[in-house]
Structures are given as C-alpha cells and as structure tokens.
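Example 4.3 (complexes with small molecules)
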Amino acid sequence: MEYEIIPVTGFQQNCTLVWCSKTKEAAVIDPGGDQDKILARVDALQLALTQIWLTHGHIDHAGATGDLAEKLNLPIIGPQKNDAFWIEALAQQSQMFGFPAAKPFTPSRWLEDGDTVQVGEQVFQVLHCPGHTPGHVVFYHADTQLAQVGDVLFQGSIGRTDFPQGNHDDLIRSIREKLFPLGDDVRFIPGHGAMSNFGRERTSNPFCGDARS
Ligand SMILES: [Zn+2]
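Answer. The structure with zinc ion bound is encoded below.
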C-alpha cells in the first residue's frame, strides 16, 4: 500500500490517495475540492482511480465527491449513515463557506464499525468514531499501521464538537477506546495539518492524552 497526501480547498484538507502497489488501483479519501489537482496526481502516478471513500460529510472533505463520482463513474463509500444530514446539506455548506457549488450525491455504500473496504489487494478496517460528526469513520490499514482519521484527531489537538450533533464526550471516547488501542506505533493522517502517531498523542495531547483524565 502506498499513499500521497494532497491538501485541497482553502482549508488545506488532507485529501489522500491510497493505492495498491501491485495492481495500481487507487481510492481517493475525502475529495473536498480541487479535483483537477487530485486527477493530475492520479495521472502522474499512473493509477486507476476506482473508488471514493469519505470519513464524514463536511464540505472540505466531501465537496468534490458528486462531481468526481459522476465524471469517472466511481462508487462513493462511507461515511456512516448518521452523517446523511451533513451530505444532504452540502449545498448550504458550500454557500456558507464560499466553496464552489457541490453536486449532490448519495453514497453507494454506508459504512458501519467493523466493516472493511478494499482497493486492489489492500484491505482497510472501518472504525465508527462519532463526536466531530455522528457518522464519522476512520480507515485503518493494519499491515502498514496507518490510519486516515479525518477530523477526529490532530497533532496536538482534536476535532471541533460545536457543530450540530457534535459531542465532546463521544469524541474523546472514540479516540481513547477505538484509536489509541490500535497501538502507539500507528501513524495517522489527520484531516488537517501534520501527521503524528497515537503514542505521541496519547502521551502529550492536552485534550485526549493520558494526563487528561
Ligand atoms: Zn469536519
């Protein structure tokens, strides 16, 4: 499995291409915008983009999904269905944040905790991690100990919980009971900013680390 982070939109959201080194099939996680930039990398890396995976329904993560899915006839996989209200509100979200109009879509497949998703020969586990949004999911590749965590956890910080149906206690529980048990060595790509690993956050993150009981 290989990956490349492509920051997109004015929010510099960490859209990520993940692909199977053997088959060159790729999935794009969270195409929030700048689809030309994403497709240029797909071409340059000589990949076959076959799927779109979503961590949650916020505009900076999902904004280009409808367009891209239609253009390339791609299935849209995720998030968990409790984020349906966010996806239905993408048009309002794009207005509110000054994004290009987002084409409406309905995911081809909603995900649940314990599901797996696959691209080429690479299998990722799905963890339902509510709190930032109620249907937020995380994609975890156990073989390489790499997680794409969206807006659940950041280096030194955590996701906002002041949006509709956000819940701080749920978020902390998601991090401590779903993510940290995967192991200190697991590296993660957050929705924004630099990568980190769970051990570093567990020991030093002021919002969800061990020091905060
Ligand atoms: Zn978000």
